[in-house]
Amino acid sequence: MKRIIMLVAFLVVAGVTMAQKYAFVDTEYILENIPSYTAAQEQLDQISKQYQKELETIHGEVEKMYKDFQAESVLLSEDMKRKREDVIITKEKEYKALQRKYFGPDGDLFKKRQGLIKPIQDDIFNAVQELANEGSYAVIFDKAGGLSMLYTNPKFDLSDQVLQKLGYKN
What we know:
Elements: H1 2-16, E1 21-25, H2 27-32, H3 35-72, H4 78-103, H5 108-135, E2 137-142, H6 159-166
């Protein structure tokens, strides 16, 4: 859907302004050349691994509790069975709540990503916007995004200029 919208927008702009200048950038390339982005990604990976390890430990505990319950259920009274089931269900709920807290749409990892990555992305966007204004470009495409480009002429690639504007050498 995003591709269709961008293609339609491009065709409308191209039809109206045939004499306009177009360029593209490769945000993947730009991000790979920004050390703070690489450091942020590594930090996020470490946090993710830590969260995953914690969740795996809790999941293992739940699995053990359930297996123990199955093995001992023959010997337990109905009241004791119900109590053990309640403990297992409570532990499973805790596991799922912690999973949402860490990896959910508004989870800790998402918030941490927003705090570390979004400022870098905002800087890139601002640098692209400045280059567009300075170079009088009508449209600047992102080659790394979902837009398919069958051919790109390197002379219209502004990725290195974006890095320079951000103060990085390629």
